[in-house]
Amino acid sequence: MNRSRFDGHSPRFVFYEEDIIALQELDANEVYVPLSRVCETLGLDLAQQTRALETHSILVNGLRSLGREGLGMRVDLIPLWLCTLDAMLVNSTVRTKLIQYQQECASVLWHAFKPQGFGPEDALLPDRNELTPAELAYQSAMAQAALARQQMLIERNLQADRSDGNRMSGGDEERSQRNTPAFDLARAVRRVAHSLAARSRRNEYSGVFSGLHRQFGISSYRNLPYGRLREAMDWLERWHGDILGEPEPPPDI
């Protein structure tokens, strides 16, 4: 594998086992990566890749001229770009690593976006009965991360509502989306997390997400069955009542 290209001092590009985003010669405050350097390491044609990026509706927004270094891409979009590459077009020395990286991205995306109730399918994991403790821990952590991500996005919409004079913003479709089980659960989670934080002076969201996952197997607000939703809502309401009325934490988390 072509692990890096050296300029006499340090590697400019490393792949997979090390951090593929933190590139040598970039200050911590810099956020753009020269495309020429990445294309050289991968064995890709710079002109061809530039044309493809300039026609991509998302990636084009991350392109920027870096002067003598040519065109650069914003670092947060590098993973998305790597996912769009055909592994058969890159250097044979890095092909296996690119495929492994794309498998990892597929795993992360599935955990982030899968609806509730879907099985444990995952590009990185074996069948459920073959999971090791480390793999079970990964699965649980990714489920909680997905809940946190969805909570974050819902709370942004709720904040937009408050900023609009406590009136629902957007059109009829947006308003109807705010009156959904996902929004109801997110509101309950926020109420419990904020009440806990008022006592502990800590961020308590992670504990609420952990409890939802452990108690009810909830890994997504999407497509949540009504029965599971009601159980979770009742549990959160009891927890919130305990926070307000009892000095001790609730017993079942």
Helical coverage, percent range: 40-55%
Let me know the largest β-sheet. 3 strands, antiparallel
How would the global form be characterised? Answer: elongated
Q: Termini separation (Å)?
A: 47 Å
What does it look like?
The structure is a single chain. α5 packs across α8 and α7 (181-200) packs parallel to α9. With 253 residues, the chain is mainly alpha-helical. The chain has two domains: 6-113, no CATH class; 128-245, no CATH class. Helices cover 54% and strands 4% of the residues. Mean pLDDT is 80; it is low at 1-17 and 19-26. The longest helix is centred in the middle third of the chain and has 31 residues, at 133-163. Strands 1-3-2 form a three-stranded antiparallel sheet.
Descriptive keywords:
disordered N terminus, about 250 residues, 3 strands, mainly alpha, elongated
Give a short synopsis of this structure.
The chain is mainly α and 253 residues long. The protein has 9 helices and 3 strands; from the N terminus they run βααββααααααα.
Ordered list of secondary-structure elements with their pairings:
Elements: E1 32-34, H1 35-42, H2 46-54, E2 63-65, E3 71-74, H3 78-84, H4 92-113, H5 133-163, H6 172-178, H7 181-200, H8 205-216, H9 226-245
Antiparallel strand pairs: 1-3, 2-3
Helix pairs in contact: 4-5, 5-7, 5-8, 7-8, 7-9
